[in-house]
Specification:
alpha/beta; Peroxisomal Thiolase, Chain A, domain 1; 2 domains; five-stranded mixed beta sheet; about 60% helix; about 10% strand; globular
């Protein structure tokens, strides 16, 4: 076990009496810790088992029904995992989310290791439970490690890659490099990259960290470093093969099609990215991270802080640069926070910081879960609009009306004008024949052959944010609105939509 790092003992630690006494004063007391874990455990249970399905969860569930070497929007591992959970546990939101439990357990295993390294033996368990609470109290981790989307895979695999790299760096600096750790880093990085392309920031951060220190340039002469890089690159061969077979659409998407989508102004992009990052990570935790990356922390080894700072700076700087031309979502930068979060109990300066962080996580994380389990909070103050949360609650009634119209008109196709509703209707019904036809490119462009459906009739689901005009003009010979509906949640309107009977599909577009 010592070869891969999961041992009780370590070389760099805070085991001396003064450090132990200081940590004991910072860690929360038993009552506070137990109360925090109970509340956060309830939130975690709610996020996994009770929250309504996100449209993207339905979209990626469909990937599992169409196994392939890769996909248009993302690498293939998420789709493969959906295929596995569907095969083992069956269809449905909860079945798909069961995969998030072992990935969350993987993060806890790494937290357990670092608490053993950095805390005295008598404080290890308390430090670990504190770290678990701090991890769950970050709304970003609470939510994105509970949804059946790619991020739960990216998080644990990127963290594992960084974990093994830090241990390898320690062994190399000590003059006895353990190359098994380097190859474990390469494999985990490859798996992370098969989950989501954001893993490139882990690789870039590590690369910059190596290059910026003159005495580490000698690493470049180590053949094992290049062999490890080849291992990671080889693991991406499914992505390269699929893109080569289809004309490199993923590269077109990320280098052109997505740039400028929903753009407003650089100031708005930067402001929104900054505020959302602080809010979703947690203001208290973000301040502790920045303090650690700038000044360090007494208990945390420099060989952890260096890669952590490099990955954070490379990822964050890249997304701020992107904000100059296009909006950037806060969760795209998740890899920047992983190493600091793994040692979070050793970054706070007082038990009050822990309490404030947990309070923020419970209140804000709780509000996010209220929105996904009870009623969308935005809808209480704004008209129903293009919010995923509105669609989440509208989908069951949408499906009921679609199936009623299907029974009456017996169409050859069920069509929606956006991928969000097509994804949720597919997930809730367990069907794979519901089609998205619209100008936005997605996986239906690869699954659906228009020429095979020429002349067919359809029931079309449309709503204001994705109107059916393009369908009327380009896709069908004749259309007739057959129903206008408002979906409600506890009496609160969440989505207006309509059904159209469309006749004579032209066999092309409107993609």
């Amino acid at each position: 076990m010592t070869d891969i790092g999961f041992a009780a003992e370590g070389r760099v630690s805070a085991r001396d009496g003064a450090a132990g006494a200081g940590l004991d004063a910072v860690l929360p007391g038993t009552k506070v810790l137990v109360a925090a874990l109970v509340v956060l455990g309830v939130l975690k249970f709610t996020a996994v088992f009770l929250a309504a399905a996100l449209p993207d969860e339905g979209y990626y569930w469909l990937w599992g029904q169409h196994p392939d070497w890769s996909y248009y929007d993302h690498p293939p591992l998420g789709g493969w995992v959906h295929w596995l959970t569907g095969t083992v546990f069956g269809n449905g939101t909860v079945a798909a989310r069961l995969a998030t439990l072992p990935t969350f357990a993987g993060t806890l295993l790494i937290l357990w290791y670092w608490c053993g390294r950095l805390a005295p033996p008598d404080l290890r368990l308390r430090a670990f439970l504190t770290g678990t609470a701090m991890w769950l109290a970050s709304p970003l981790m609470l939510v994105y490690q509970s949804l059946a989307i790619h991020d739960h895979l990216l998080i644990v695999l990127s963290l594992a890659a960084l974990h093994f790299f830090v241990l390898f760096a320690e062994s190399r600096e000590a003059g006895a490099p353990r190359y098994r750790l380097l190859y474990l880093f390469a494999v985990m990085l490859g798996l992370a990259a098969l989950s989501k392309y954001n893993a490139v920031f882990v690789a870039a951060g590590i690369g910059v960290w190596i290059l910026l220190q003159r005495d580490r340039l000698a690493w470049l002469g180590d053949v094992h470093l290049w062999l490890a890089a080849l291992v990671t690159a080889a693991m991406l061969s499914p992505v390269l093969y699929w893109n080569w077979s289809h004309g490199w659409p993923s590269f077109q998407f990320y280098t052109h099609d997505r740039i400028g989508h929903l753009a407003t102004s650089p100031f708005d992009h930067i402001y929104n990215f900054t505020v959302q990052s602080f809010v979703l990570v947690s203001p208290v935790l973000m301040v502790a991270f920045l303090r650690f990356l700038i000044r360090g922390a007494p208990a945390v080894p420099a060989l952890l802080r260096g890669p952590a700072a490099s990955v954070f700076l490379i990822g964050t700087a890249t997304w701020y640069a992107m904000c100059l031309v296009t909006p950037a979502a806060h969760y795209w930068n998740v890899t920047s926070y992983l190493l600091p979060l793994a040692v979070a109990p050793f970054l706070i300066r007082s038990a009050m910081e822990f309490r404030l962080h947990v309070l923020w996580g419970v209140l804000y994380g709780g509000s996010l879960l209220f929105t996904s389990t009870v009623v969308p909070l935005l809808t209480l103050t704004q008209p129903p609009g293009r919010h995923d949360e509105n669609l989440m609650f509208a989908a069951p009634s949408m499906l009921a009306e679609v199936e009623k119209a299907e029974a009456e008109y017996d169409p050859a196709m069920i069509v929606t004008t956006d991928y969000l509703s097509a994804s949720l209707l597919s997930l809730y019904s367990g069907r794979t024949d519901i089609v998205h036809l619209g100008p936005r490119r997605d996986m239906w462009d690869f699954w659906f052959d228009p020429t095979l459906h020429k002349g067919e009739d359809a029931i079309v689901l449309a709503y204001d944010e994705f109107p059916e005009t393009v369908l009327i003009e380009k896709a069908f010979e004749k259309t007739e609105t057959i129903g206008d509906f408002t979906a409600e949640r506890f009496g609160v309107p969440v989505k207006h939509y309509r059904l159209i009977h469309a006749e004579g599909y032209r066999g092309e577009g409107p993609q």
